[in-house]
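Sample entry (325 residues):
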Amino acid sequence: MKKNKHKLKAMGCLLPLVIAPLLFILMVFMALATTTTSGGCDLKGANNSSSADRTDSGLASDSDWTYPGSVAYNNAKKTFDDWVSKGLSGASAAGIVGWVNSEGGFAMIGRAEGHYGSSLEENSIAYGNVPVGLSYYTTEAGGGIYQFTPYTKYAPLGDPLWEDINHMNTFVAKAIIAGDWNPSHDMSGLNRSFLQMAEETDPQSATLAWNAYERGNPAYIHLDQKKADAQKAYEMFDGGSYAFNASLFASSFGLSAGGEDKPVEELPAASKKKKQNCGSKSKLSGDYAHIFDTPYTVRIYPLVNVFKSICFYRWQAYRCRCGSR
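Predicted structure, serialized as tokens:
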């Protein structure tokens, strides 16, 4: 009987040492199940550029580019900001937004021509949806917010770049650097250079100049809509606050304020995110990442401290209860 009591007592002493690591493992998995944001760092799935550039909601407001916070609004604003960051005036950037809105539109970045739904999987070229052109087309149909025609001149079918708005804006800028600008197609009749368009103070006039890049058939271009959209973008995004910046323009396009060419190695990225101080965090990854349908970031050190405290407490109890028999 006495031996049984000693066995029970020994088991009771060992039990806390077994439970402590199990509790620690449980706490880790509970932490993994929750996505956290700290130190001002946005995780994928929050309303940052990654999620704002996607259109996978059926909500009507997501396709309304004049509705603040909608997918279309965020994409239009990012396009405006990208061009301003390259030195263009607010009026010039608004002119581009105004033109693009009635091309591919901003509700979906990689929309395939001839596809008008709201689902990415069924309408974006990134998901393998083949653009469908008009009967008079002599090439493959277009796609993207700029309606690249044929679509293959931007990226192949199924390429994720179709849903990367920064890359798409930069692609256009690089094309202009390479000479993809024909002033004779300026629909104002002024035959402006890209530099002159970039300096523009009237968004409605700027949008007419954009056809020097687009080179669309005037018979199919609704100028009234483009001018109205350019004016709307100018007002929504406070275009009057952004004057032409010769220094930014020169560094982005290799052109001086006087229009002189200079060597250009590579266009800087349309927008660079500032590195954020996120505190001391450790990311966990591995075989179980797929279990959680969200990226995860976990603060490890607090959990370690809790574990140490539990072990210390249990060890003290063990010494008190089991140290002498």
